[in-house]
What does this fold into?
Amino acid sequence: MSTGRETVLARIRAAIGAEQGPPVTGPSATGLGLGPGPGTGSSASDPGAGAGSPQADGVTDRLAGRRHEDIPRDYLPVHRDEDPAALLDLLHENLADYRALVHRSTAADLPATVARLLAAHGSRTVAVPADLPPDWLSAAAGVAAVVDDGTLTAVRLDAVDSVLTGCALAVAETGTLVLDAGPAQGRRLLTLVPDHHICVVRAPGQIVASLPRALPRLDPTRPQTWISGPSATSDIELDRVEGVHGPRTLEVVLVTES
Amino acid sequence: MSGDTFLGMPSFPAAAAESTRNRRLRANLSHATRTIREKRARAVAELTDWAELRAAGKAIKDHTLRHLDRYLLQLEAAVTAAGGTVHWAVDAAEANRIVADLVLATGEREVIKVKSMATQEIGLNEALAAEGIAAYETDLAELIVQLGDDRPSHILVPAIHRNREEIREIFAERMAAWGRPAPEDLTDSPAQLAEAARLHLREKFLRAKVAVSGANFMIAETGTLVVVESEGNGRMCLTLPETLISVVGIEKVVPSWRDLEVFLQTLPRSSTAERMNPYTSLWTGTLGPEGDGPSAFHLVLLDNGRTTALADQVGRQALRCIRCSACLNVCPVYERAGGHAYGSVYPGPIGAILTPQLRGTTSEIDASLPFASSLCGACYEVCPVAIDIPEVLVHLREQVAGQGGHRLERAAVKAAGFALDHPGVLAAGERVAGRARGLLPDRLPGPGRGWTDSRDLPDLPGQPFRDWWKKNRSRSRSRSRSRKDSR
It folds into this structure.
């Protein structure tokens, strides 16, 4: 295993060695003590490793070593108006465009809305994360909650009719729901195996305009699932068909304060 | 590249001569690529800053490649710190060995797979089969290819050469041999075909203990891996099994979490023409005590020719590729020849520059790939990381020519060079051709026959353009000017 590692690193250094330029200050690179030139375990047989580039002139050198933070990012942070009402409408429109069923509700009406959706789907069982706000299911009489205490298996979930969760945030421009196993979301398999997913989004707090707005709010060390509409495929004649392995029905409840 | 399944492939022109005669293939391909071309153009036009996103994507990838050793080490440290194990594979054989040993060590004899170009490239399924391990493809198109005992012909949609009737036949005939049979009354409606795949694969998802995936991006800063997909088979494979093995090309690393804001805008729009693909999974190492996902995670970093490409200052831009397949969908050569003619899991324009760099240009098929293009430049135009494919094609042609080149091409270029250097010869030739046009056959004889099998010869004009110009244009110029004046 380690021979493969040294060989690959040596080949990379041989390929780029002479062009590396000054030390890169990539994200957190310094904290890991990964300096330029001959790194961990490179041997004298690396032709390019650590060659440095004393002969390179200043301009080429700077270009070659352009720092990560100098990458031109002239693209837009958002493409649309960030007015909360406009974002709510845009999210609604884009979710619906990819065949999610979108509903609006006030916070007070949420239990009734959830109950109505479960009844309309004919669901008798609904999987929920252990920390689901208790009132969300308070009006769903006749639907048994299957609470995930961390031991629910995929086989058990396969026999559950629906799943109800919240989300971490939603991206209006792309019609995307992000789940990161945070509050009211549960483990990833919960929203994967049942065929019907109801996801609650709180407006305006959980809605951002764009990806550049979303990423700083997310923690990369948490497992994440980004969901943009129900499961789909374009594999037959490059034509989009909804519904393969993930939930075939995605319902989104956009909750406003009043 | 091992490319076992492609061993003994004829050169691109020979393979294309075969495939362009296949009317059904051409109809399937032109229907599918036309559909996606129009949709992509609309999806891209929604973003007014597309050019800037493209420039940023290119710059991020170039920067990463220039410091690839450091970013890989940073990635390795981050993945290890998060509970994963990192392996390095110099070539296909080494990667296959590593994966097979990891699977055997679990005691399992079957794995489920997320669609992955890297594992196609190294022929992993065949290598695992040789060890007695069954690998089940779970992407719909890969399933169609696997059940049909077929080869992939497109990066995104490996079964693009199959239409719905063919897919129905494959499912009806072959599913039973692999697991749950197709429903008795299966029709060719795409929704029913997708349903059949759902039922067939679900038992495999629920049973599997080991999954093998690739990744679209690896983030050096955090050790996070990213898989974009549509169907949910990726989520199944990345979430349900106990052991996850990801085989990823070393060029897939990007420096920072923030860099995703560029690629997750450009990739879905370029690939499936969507604002965002239905599902994206992101995970970092193993998922700890909550049990949210595999408890063992192995990352196999794959070289397999990539460092050779990296050493080529012109050719290395091919390593920026994010495998969106937009270049295939706009390519007139791909649309007519189909993916199989390229003799590689990477077909189309990107394959024509990637395959010869990964495999070298010693075989007939690989030496012919840089010539499998009209250099029209449509591929460069749509590339979300601005890979100048025509530039690399020309560069690789020079390399092949340096090895001796193609005999017929050398003769043709020599003849053309002579005529163009001697205007009298050219003019005389054009006039003779014009007067003899009644004698022109519908089909070319000799080596040109294959070309006209799938095309109509253009009509020759009655006189050369230069003669027409002399006769008409010198007189009419004064007339048109006076017309303009009278307005």
Summary: Chain A is about 20% helix and 20% strand. Confidence is low (pLDDT under 50) at residues 28-64 of chain A.
